[in-house]
Amino acid sequence: MTLLTPAGPGRSAAASLTGQAEAAGLRVLAAAAWPESAADRVPPPLAGFVVSSFSPLAAETARRCLARRPAAAAAVTAVVVVSPLGDLAGAVHVAGIVEGGGRPGPLLFFQAVPNAVAGHLAARWQLTGPVVCVGDTNAGLDVAALLLEDGDADEALLIRVDQAATAAARDRAGAVLLGAGPQESDARPGSGPHDSEGAQP
Question: Would you list the DSSP string of 12-78?
């Protein structure tokens, strides 16, 4: 198969996840990233999620990845969210409210854990597999491999979100749709898994 991966600024995020997944013996069916071009400055807003870019980043990157999935029979798809720091911007915002003597609104409580956006994605895309959130990419790949091996899912959508921790940094995210088994070998001769630019969904 010819893997569809993004080109441009976000390519390294998708390529890194792709490489790690293949090294773990998993098959990469599709990949996406944020940003993928200079036009990717602010992710599209996500209804029900406020203040922070964390959930919009996860949702948009997942949307791009799922839109590039190969046409196939209906599959049970797990969602694995990876983030070392979680919703950093949301946590900073809540801390500021509390330090000022205020009370955070209910939406901030709802989105305080990464599995909130994982649940949103499962409902939005009708993904019926398990939902798991971890803090490390290797742990996420281990979880995905176990879910696939045990038959709990036919494929796993792994999303990594890294919010900017400094003013000079940029939000970044990557997503890969994973299947069991090694990468198929019927790609174009001499082509690597990152050589094809996917059309924007």
Answer: HHHHHHHHHHHHTTPEEEEEEEE--STT-SSPPP-TT--S-SHHHHHHHHHHHHHHTSPP-S---EE
Cβ neighbours around 185 below 10 Å, total: 6
Following CA atoms 142, 176, 116, 55 in sequence, which dihedral angle do they give, to the nearest 10 degrees?
130
> 133-165, pLDDT tens digit by residue?
999 999 999 999 999 999 999 999 999 999 886
Calculate helix-pair angle for 54-67, 115-125, nearest 10 degrees: 30
CA dihedral defined by 6, 10, 15, 18, rounded to 10 degrees? -80
Please, what's the largest Cα pairwise distance for the chain?
63
Q: What is the pTM of this model?
A: 0.77
Peptide bond preceding 70 in cis form (omega within 30 of 0): no
